[in-house]
Amino acid sequence: MLICFQVVVLAAQEQATSDFTLVGDNAITSILIDKKDAKVVTIASNIFATDVYNITGKKPGVSTKDSRSETTIIAGTIGSNKLIDSMIAAGEIDVSVIEKQWERYSIQIVENPTSTIKKALVVVGSDRRGTAYGILELSRKIGVSPWEWWADVTPTKKESLSLTMEKEVSKSPSVKYRGVFLNDEDWGLQRWAALNFETETGDIGPKTYAKVFELLLRLRANTIWPAMHSSTKPFYSYPENKFVADDYAIVIGSSHAEPMLSNINTEWKHDEMGEYRYDTNSETIKRLFTKRVKETAKLEGVYTTGMRGEHDSPMIVGEDDTDAQVHLLERVITDQRAILAKETKKDPSSIPQAFVPYKEVLNYYQSGLELPEDITLVWTDDNYGYIRQLSNPQEQKRAGGAGVYYHTSYWGRPHDYLWLNSTNPVLMWEEMSKAFELQSRNIWILNCGDIKPHEYNIELFLDMAWNMEDFNESSSVKQHTKNWASREFGETFATEITNVLFENNRLAYIRRPEFMAWSQVEPVTKEGETELTQFHYGDEVTERIDSFKSLINATEEIYNNIPMYRKDAFYQLVYYPVIGASKLNQKWLYSFKNQFTAKQGRQSANAFSVLSEEAYNRIRKETDYYNTMLKNGKWNHIMTMAPRFLPVFAKPATFSVANNENASLGLALEGYQMEVNDKVINSYADVLPVFNRYTESTYFIDVFVKGNGTVNWEAKPKSDWIRLSENKGTLNSDNLEKRIWVSIDWSKVPQGENKKEAPLGHDFQLIPPSFKVNSAIDFIVEGEITSIGVSVYNPNLEALNNYKGFVEDKGFVSIHAENFTRKKEGKEANWKLFESMGYTNKVITALPRTSTPLVDLEEIKANSPVLEYDFYTFNFGEVDVNIQAVPTHAPFAGIGVRCAIAIDDATPVFVNFETKGRSKEWKQNVLKNASKQTVKQVVNKAGKHTLKIWMVDPGVLIDQVLIDLGGWKKSYAFPKETVKK
C-alpha cells in the first residue's frame, strides 16, 4: 500500500529524541558510505542527497570518510561496510532479522555510533538492492515522488527538514524479480530518446536506461526486459548498457521471443547467419547464445529458455506436428543449459532461468513438454489482461516456481491499445492476486509500452509485487489510488482525483478508447458499426457522451485549482490520459450521432459533425502541448496520438444535411430507429414504449428542426398524470434539438383491477384493457398537431404490494449480480464482492480460488455457495437467461470458468465462460471485457420466481444477468436494472 509518511519541520529546540534533522537552521546532515560497497549504494545516496537539495536548496555531502557532522546518515550493506559491521559486532544494531535475506533493509536512529557522530540514521541492507531501497525509502519519507523526474512531480519546498520515525524493518518482497518490459517503443520512448534526450546516441542507450533504472529503484523494482523492436538497437549492442544496469543493480531479462538474452529481431542477420531455424541451423543459433552468455556471465540476469520465431512468431519446424515441435523445443532447452554450464562454470540449476509459455508455446507445454524443475514458469495473460493459465498444485511445488508476464499495452489482434493506459487497475489486481494466491511469486513483469502514460499502473503493479499483503481487498486499489493522489497532489485533491480516475477506469472497462471505432487489426479493417444503441434504453451513445462531459469538466476544474508547481505533473499523470480518452470517445460518439441524425434529416447532424472534429482537434492540441510546450519540450516526441496510424485514430467521415428547405418540427421517440412520420398512416413510431408502474419507467422524445429557420413548438399532455421535462421551446440554428423526458405521476393514474396475480401469457406490449391506461401528448407547431401515444401499465396486484425484488419490464428482467436477494455460504467457498470493476462497477465471485470445483449436481445443491434473486414476471414460457461474466480463463486443468443456474426448483444448468485460443468468441470478449452466455429456462407461470446461481468453479466473476422473455432489443450493455420501485 502506498503510505504517506510523516514529515516534520521543527526548529532545533523543538525536536524530540526520535527526530532526525536532515537540514536545520545551521546544519546539514551528511551521508557516510563505504567505498567498497556496491556502486548502487553510491547512486542511491546521491539520488537522496539531490532530493534533499530539491526540497531545501541544501545538499548533503556523500562521503566514504568518517563524518565530522554531528548528525550523519550511515548507509551500507552487511558485509560491505566496515562501520556497520563493527556496529553489528558491538551489538549497537541488530540485523538478525534481515541478514542473508533477499532485498531487505532496516532503518533506525543510533545515538553516538562513533566518537565524532552524536546521532546517526543507520540504513542497513541485507544486499546491495536492499541498501538502495532503504536509502530511497528516506526520499519517500521526505515527500519525494518516485515520479519526480519521469512525471515532473516537483517536491514541495521547505527551509528545514526532519524525520520522525521509529525503527523500521522491511519485509521480504512478495515477488522475487519485479520489473517492466519496454515494448512497442517505436512511437514514443525510442523517438523521444533518439530525437530529444539522447541525441548523441540517437537511440535508447545508456543515458536513457540510467533514468529508467533510477525509476525502477525508486519503485523498488529490480528487473527489466529492455526495448527490443527493430527501431531500437539491441540492448547489448551498446556495451555500456550492461554496466549501467549492473551499477544500478538491475537484473536483465528478456521476453518470450528473445532466448538467452538475445534480441532476435535485430541481432539475427539472415545474409550472414542463414535461416532462424533450430532444426536446420542449430549450430549458428547456439553461437549467438554462447556469445551472449559469455558477455553476461558475471552480471545478474534471468535467461529466457526455449525459442520462438522471428518477430513474435511461432518457430519454424520442418515437421508440422505438435510432437515434433515439442521434442525440438526440449532439445533447444537442453542445449541452452549446456551453454550456461560451460560458459558460467556453474550448475544450471543455480542460474535464474525463465520459460514463457506464450501463444503457441503454451500449446507445446500443455502437450507434454518436459521442463527442468528449476526453470521458472512465467505465465502470460492473453494480451488483454486475463491470465491464460497458472500453476496447478503439482507445478506449484517446482523448485523454479512461477511468475507472470502481464500487459497494459499491446500491439496485435484483435486490436492494439498502445496509446493510453486503459487496463482497469482493479482487474489487474484481481488477476495478479489470483496469480499470487496460486503461488506465481518468482517473476512479475509488466509490459508497459513507453512508460508514459502508464505511470499509475506501473506503480500499482510494482507495489503489489513488493508487498501483496497490502492488497487483500479489491477496495485496497482505490485506497492505493487515493494515497497516490494525496502524495502527488495533496490531500485536498486526493478524493476528487481518485473519483476522476475511477470513472475513467469504469468507462474504459466497458470499452477501451482504442476500440471505439469497432475496427480490428491484422488485417486492419475500416471502422465498423457501433453496437451502442441510440434509440433503446435511454440511448447508450448519449449516455456515454454525457459521462465524458462530466469527466472532462471534473478534470479541468481540478487542473485549474492544482498549485502551479504541480500542474505539469497533473497534466502528465491525470489530465492528458483522461482528456485523451474522453476526446477519443467523443470523436467517435459524435460521429455515431451524426450518422444517426443525418438519416432522420436533422440539422443537428451538422453540429455533431463539428463536435466530432473538435474532439479530434483537441487530441491534436493536447498532444502537441505535451510534446512541445510541457516542461519546455522535455518530453518532445514521447507522445503519439496515432500509434500505427490505425483507423480509430483518424478523423471520422461524417454526413452533412442540407438546410435549403423551410424549417419544420421533427420528432423521434425512444424505442424507434426512424423518426415520427405523419404522412404514413398508422406509423409504428408514434407511440412510446409502455410505462410500467413497478419500475417507474421514463422515456425520451427528441424534438428537432428540419430545414432552415425557426420552429416554436409546444407539447400538451392529454392527461394530468403525464409529466414532461419541458413543454415548449424554440428550435433554430443555435438550438437544433432538445431531448424531452416523459415520466408518469403514478399517484394520478387511474388504477387497474385489483388482482392477486398478473394475467397469464400476454405480450407486454398488448396489455389487456383492464391493466392499461392510454393517453397522448400533442406536439403543436403553428396549429398543426402531432400526437404521440402514451400507454401505462398500472394494475393493482396484491402480490406486489410489499414485494422487494426485480420485475419484468418490456419483456425482460435485468439484474446486477451484486444485488442478490439472499446468499448461502458453501462448504468451502463463499460469494464475495469485488468493487470498481465490471459493467456495474461491482462483480461477485466465489472465493477462495483454491476451493474445490463442484460438478456433481447433488453436491452442487448441497455444498456450493448459491446466490438467489427474486423476480416477478407478467409473462411465462421458455426464457433466455443471459449471464455476463468477466472473461477470465481457467487457471489450470480441473478448474474451469463455470457456474450453474436454475429458475425455481429446476435442475441446475451449467454455464461455461471459457474460450479456446484466439477464437472469434475470445476476440469479442476481450474487445468488450465481457463474456455473455445464454441458457434456456422455463418460467412456468406469471408471478414470483427465484433465479439461483451456484458456484461450480471458484474465481468465476459474475457481472450481470438478463432474463429475456422475448422483449430485449439490441443493445451493447444490458438495460438498467428492473427493480420494483
Overview of this protein structure:
- It comes from Maribacter dokdonensis.
- Keywords: Hydrolase.
- InterPro entries: GH115, GH115_C, GH115_sf, Hex-like_dom2.
- This is Glycosyl hydrolase family 115.
- The chain has 981 residues and is α/β, with parallel strands linked by helices.
- It has 5 domains: 163 residues, 2-Layer Sandwich (Chitobiase, domain 2); 294 residues, TIM Barrel (Alpha-Beta Barrel), CATH 3.20.20; 141 residues, Up-down Bundle (Methane Monooxygenase Hydroxylase, Chain G, domain 1); 137 residues, Immunoglobulins (Immunoglobulin-like), CATH 2.60.40.10; 159 residues, Jelly Rolls (Sandwich), CATH 2.60.120.
- It is 29% helix and 21% strand.
- The protein is built from 20 helices and 40 strands.
- Helix 10 links the parallel strand 13 and strand 14.
- Helix 5 packs parallel to helix 6.
- It is globular, with a radius of gyration of 32 Å.
- The two termini are 41 Å apart.
- The N terminus is likely disordered.
